[in-house]
Structure formats: C-alpha cells, structure tokens
Design brief:
The chain is of the alpha+beta class and 543 residues long. It contains 17 helices and 23 strands.
Length: 543
C-alpha cells in the first residue's frame, strides 16, 4: 500500500496502551475485508448489543452504536490503520498535507470515490458535509469549531482553513461523525447545510430509513429498539466487504448476549462483562479481554434547572471522596477494569502521572460540612437504563447510592430510556447523572472540548446552566497551547496540567475504565476494536 501521505497521531499515545488490537484485521489495505464472497459470508452477521442510538442522521448521531453504523455506511476522508491504531491512511482522500502552524489542511480526493447510488463523491460534498455538521449543532459539531473557510478549487481538492492552530484536525476528519454525505440526495430529502440548519433542516426522519453515504454498506432497515440491517454496497468504489448482510440486534443484558452467542444466534456479543465472559466454555466462541479507551462516569450539574442543592466545589469533591471505586469495579465488572483519574482516558497523552481517585469517607463528611451541607441532602439522579462496556448502569448506580448514603447523600434513582435521557440532558439538565464515553477521535483535545470547563464545551453548559456556562480559564489557555504545539513532550506536560484542572473541577467523576471483552464466534476473522470507529464491520469475514 502507498502510505507516503500517512500522518501519525500528534497525541503520541503510548504503544502499550494501543496494544488492544487483539487480532490482525483482514487485508492490508484500508478497506480490507477479503473482498466480496459467497459461502458462509452470504449468511448474515448478527451483532448483539444494547443499542444506544440517538439518531441515524450523520450530523446528529452521537453514540457507540452510531460509530459502528456510520463507519459502515459513510466514508471518511482518511482512515485509521488497525495494525497500530494511530497511523492515518488514505480513504476518500488519497493524499493530504498541513501547513507548518496547523491552520490549513489540503486534501486531494480519489477520483474513483463515489456514493452508493453511483454518483461521484466530490469536494462539494465534503464542504457541504462539514458545514452541515457544524450548523445542525449536534454533539459532534465541535469537530468543525474554528473553521474560517472551506475552499473547493476543483472537484478533487478540499482546503480547510482554521482561525487558530489545531493539531487534532486530522483526527477529527478521521472520525465516523465526519463521514461524507451525498449532498444532492440529502438536500432533496430535507437536509440543509445553511447556518440556520439547526432549525431549518428537516432530514432527520428521512435518515431513519435511508443512508446517503459512500461506505461499504447501506442501510437496509432500521427498527427502533429492535435492529439495524445493513446491506453490502455493491457499488462501493474500494474493496468490497466479504459479508453480504450485517444485523445489529437489540439485546439488552450480558447474560442474554452470552446465550445467543453460545447458541449461534449471534456472531458477536458486544457488551459481555468480564465476569460473564468467565462462564463461557463453548469452544466455538473466542473470548479476549483487552484494555480500552472507554470510560463510565457520573456528572454533577450545579446549573441544572431541577437542582435544589448548592453543588459547590467542596460538595462535588465530597461526592468524589465518598465513592468506593474498587468496590464498584468489582460489583459491575468482576474487577475487569481500572480506575481513571480525569475525563481523559488512561493511555492518552498526559494521563500517566495523574493521581487516581480513592475513597475517604471521613474526608467526604468534612467536605460536606465545609460546603454547607453537614447533614447531607437528597438529589435526583436520572441516568440511561443501559448496559455499556459490560457495566449495568442499574447495578452501578445502586452501589453508588449505597456509597453516598454513608455520608448522608440520598440519591433518587431514575433510570430512563436513552432517548428520554438525551432530551433531558440537552434540555433542563440533570443534577446528577451517569453516562459513558468512547473516543470520538484519537486526540486528547476532544476530552477538553467536550468535558472541559471551556467555552462551547457541552459539559461547561450543563454544569453552569444553559445561559451561564461554568468556565475554567486555565483550561482555556492550556488547551490553546496544546493545539499549537508541535512537540509531544510539551503536549504531554500541557495535557497533564489540563487533566489536573479537570480533576479540580469535579464536574465529571470517572468511575471506571472497563476492559473490553471481545466475544465472538471463532469462525470470524478480523475481529478488532478501533479507537476511531468502535468496530469496522467491513473488515470482518467468516473463515
């Protein structure tokens, strides 16, 4: 493969942390899936998972299942080499370059690239996609922050200009949320990239039944709460995937996923926890436990509309100190996970020297007193009723409820459907919640831009309230320096400082960095976990 134009992650992720690619992926090229074939590959691949779909619209989708779906149905400008999980490789863009200060990136598109309906994929589609992602203002819109212009001098050239240095931009356009949309098809069905797209775009319902990408698969059917069916895109311009059909099936709990995997009703079980995995002895099933960059956290929002408590820094730190992290990891994952210091996952640049959280009940009680709540308080805790990374949220929250009760904090647990939770967190906010995060892309700045107390960060708004975001100027200044730096050593120090500031914020309290259990039928080849895309189904095939 020609890799003259590849870029390496400026994040400089430690190789040891990246060693979670458990098996070699099929093929040596970016689209490698062994090519279209018959036989066992004509049998549908069934993936059992508790789906967390918030939208099927590429500009609005933001979830783990979304990453899998979008990667399958939409092509990105560049790909990620699964062999090291850090090297960028050609996809729609056959080459690219950035200027010295990282304020401009130029992409040259492959003339062969097309959409599933056969129409050419051009620079105009890239420009329209990026502008729509920004203007629809979904959760991944921050990828496009700082863009001042997108120029398309010809159908195969895209020039992106930025207001300030952004060393993470290549990582962003590699992410599944930046998949290129067929602008003409989407526009004909209510989509718009105009600046008021957040109010005038009418395509979200259409995307529930249709895909508009150029990826190796197309959407055949989506039944909310039941399944996603993908059909092989036989007009795919790259190497066609081996599997003819992929079904992502809603299966909520780990035990049922295990049963379906053992009986052969499912080929992959995506949320088997380590404890359940130990009970699988079927020789037709392969189990591998590997580190991940995913994490589960609780979050406090002083500015939530329904919050009646002064969740000042001392109270927030009291909550952190009261939690029995080791016990939570044991009860949820059977010990199959790690503690995490800050809302930047273990293994990312700047995290190796951060102090991990530990329980101190006496300290927590004193902090409550110092924070003006010596007798404790009652607080609502709404959270999605899901099982993610093997962590059953009901089990986790019941344990957290028990831990906090020891210092006088009573949680009013309110498990709800994921869509209900999304509407609430984006609306009035939630005083105390639990949720999870997988990498959006492969640079640590994403965690500052999403969890940091910086302008435009979703959690800065949720923490302080929609009209008065909670800001930390140190994080603002440090992140600007990190984006402008070309030195990994300097970036390491900067992100460590950012991590310590985020710990002091005590808004996002990481609970566990779960190990990832790869559980699949042994006849599958190419099973892997990708930092950009979760699982690339186009790389899978049957032996």
């Amino acid at each position: 493969m020609n890799r003259k134009t590849r870029y390496y992650l400026v994040a400089g992720l430690a190789l040891a942390a990246l060693a979670f690619i458990a098996t070699a992926c099929g093929g040596d090229d970016d689209n490698g899936g062994g090519g279209a074939g018959g036989g066992n590959n004509d049998k549908p691949l069934v993936i059992a998972r508790d789906m967390d779909i918030n939208s099927m619209d590429p500009s609005r989708a933001y979830c783990d299942t979304c990453q899998i779906y979008l990667t399958a149905t939409y092509d990105t400008l560049i790909g990620l080499d699964p062999k090291d999980n850090k090297t960028f490789i050609p996809r729609v863009a056959e080459k690219w370059e950035g200027n010295a200060d990282r304020t401009q990136y130029t992409f040259t598109l492959n003339k062969k690239a097309n959409f599933a309906d056969g129409t050419p994929l051009t620079s105009a589609d890239v420009k329209w996609t990026f502008e729509r992602l920004a203007n629809v203002k979904g959760s991944a819109a921050y990828f496009m922050d700082g863009i001042t212009a997108i120029e398309t001098p010809d159908p195969q050239t895209v020039i992106v200009k930025l207001a300030a240095s952004d060393s993470s931009f290549l990582a962003k356009v590699n992410a599944s949320y930046a998949g290129i949309i067929n602008s003409k098809l989407a526009s004909a069905n209510g989509a718009t990239a105009a600046k008021d797209a957040d109010t005038t775009d009418k395509a979200e319902a259409w995307f529930l039944k249709n895909s508009a990408g150029g990826g190796p698969y197309t959407l055949a059917n989506y039944t909310e709460g039941a399944e996603i069916r993908l059909a092989r895109n036989d007009k795919y311009w790259g190497d066609k995937p081996a599997l003819k059909e992929v079904i992502i099936k809603q299966v909520k709990d780990a035990v049922t996923q295990r049963q379906q995997l053992e009986t052969g009703d499912a080929d992959i079980a995506m949320q088997i926890d380590p404890d359940t995995a130990k009970k699988i002895s079927n020789k037709s099933v392969t189990i591998k436990e590997v580190p991940s960059f995913n994490f589960v956290y609780i979050a406090l929002s002083p500015g939530a509309k329904d919050n009646k408590i002064d969740l000042n820094p001392k109270i927030r730190e009291a909550v952190r100190s009261a939690l029995d992290y080791d016990g939570i990891i044991q009860v949820t994952l059977g010990g199959g996970g790690k503690k995490q210091a800050a809302p930047i996952p273990n293994g990312f640049l700047g995290t190796k020297n951060l102090q991990l959280p530990s329980r101190d009940v006496a300290k927590a009680k004193q902090l409550l007193k110092d924070g003006g709540q010596p007798n404790g308080f009652t607080i609502d805790a709404m959270y999605p009723n899901v099982n993610v990374y093997g962590v059953d949220f009901n089990t986790m929250m019941q344990k957290i409820q028990s831990d906090l009760s020891e210092i006088g904090i009573k949680l009013n647990l309110q498990p709800v459907e994921f869509t209900v939770w999304v509407a609430k967190i984006r609306g009035d906010g939630i005083p105390l919640t639990a949720v999870y995060f997988a990498p959006d892309h492969t640079d640590p700045i994403q965690y500052v831009q999403y969890f940091g107390m910086v302008p435009g960060a979703p959690w800065a708004g949720r923490a302080g309230g929609a009209n008065t975001p909670l800001l930390n100027q140190a994080e603002v200044d440090l992140s600007a320096k990190a984006l402008a730096s070309s030195s990994d050593a300097e970036r390491e120090k900067l992100y460590e400082s950012i991590g310590n500031e985020m710990i002091k914020d005590a808004i996002i309290l990481p609970i566990v960095n779960p190990n990832l259990v790869l559980a699949y039928r042994s006849e599958l080849e190419g099973m892997h976990y990708s930092a950009c895309c979760n699982l690339e189904v186009a790389r899978l095939k049957r032996k």
